[in-house]
Specification:
Number of domains: 2
Number of helices: 7
Shape: globular
CATH class of the largest domain: Alpha Beta
Order of helices and strands: EEHEEHHEEEEHHEEHH
Low-confidence stretches: none
Helix content: 25-40%
CATH architecture of the largest domain: 4-Layer Sandwich
Number of strands: 10
Largest sheet: 6 strands, antiparallel
Structural class: alpha+beta
CATH topology of the largest domain: Glutamine Phosphoribosylpyrophosphate, subunit 1, domain 1
Oligomer: single chain
CATH superfamily of the largest domain: Aminohydrolase, N-terminal nucleophile (Ntn) domain
């Protein structure tokens, strides 16, 4: 019911997943990512524990292939599941169950996996892989989104369109990018719109975000921004009273 890509950036170590589906809130159901551990896409009659347990195995040091095998061994419904794992070293593994609804399959690349089920055809994954490979000079969030756009252009989910999501982790325990379109007639272009908005409105704040080892980086800038917001609010109140 979904097409997705899980990947690691070889330059930065960023890890992430992008997904789209003719199902509600694919961005909430598919991605499982943890900085320093790996990125997992779990889909097709999704079993969330494949993502949860897969990340736990990666954190314990299992490589992608062994983590995948151990995860699916615990799932009696594995023939209906799809799972892709990219570990923190860029090793990849994937599983497409024999009972996944056609067209279903996966494509392994260097540091990434494209996978999908109920797709227009194999060309969806081929287009995603080509777009990801061709954008190697870009940061991981952009590359993931380009892959998703290429997959949609190639036909995507053959039932239609409804949701999309982009989830990327970097150095912190919280995500670097976490954007979702849960219910929309054209979710991938809407996700692109949100990502462009993110770059304008949120990226400038990222250097000011707390770190585990430093809760107050560039604290003087944070305080100045707080003062600016308070001044704007006060000016708004004065203007409202004058009216």
């Amino acid at each position: 019911m979904t097409f997705s890509i899980a990947a690691r950036c070889p330059k930065t170590g960023m890890l992430g997943v992008a997904a789209s589906s003719k199902a509600l809130a694919a961005g909430a159901a598919v991605p499982y990512c943890k900085a320093g551990a790996g990125a997992i896409a779990s889909q097709s009659f999704v079993n969330p524990y494949l993502g949860i347990d897969g990340l736990s195995l990666l954190e314990r040091g299992f490589p992608a292939g062994e983590a995948l095998q151990r995860a699916i061994e615990s799932d009696a419904g594995y023939e209906l599941r799809q799972l892709a794992i990219v570990d923190a070293q860029g090793r990849v593994a994937a599983h497409t169950g024999a009972k996944c609804i056609a067209w279903a399959g996966h494509l392994l690349g260097e540091g990434y996996v494209c996978l999908g089920n109920i797709l227009a055809g194999e060309a969806v994954l081929e287009a995603m892989a080509a777009a990801f490979d061709a954008s190697s000079l870009q940061e991981l969030p952009e590359r993931l989104l380009r892959a998703l756009e290429a997959g949609q252009t190639a036909g995507g989910d053959r039932r239609g369109r409804q949701s999309a999501g982009l989830h990327v982790v970097y150095r912190e325990e919280y995500p670097l990018v976490d954007l979702r379109v849960d219910d929309h007639p054209d979710p991938v272009p809407e996700l692109r719109r949100l990502f462009e908005l993110f770059k304008v409105e949120e990226e400038p704040w990222l250097p000011l975000m707390p770190r585990r080892e430093d809760p107050t980086p560039q604290w003087d800038k944070v305080l100045r921004k707080a003062q600016e917001i308070e001044a704007e609010l006060d000016a708004g109140k004065r203007l409202s009273k004058e009216k």
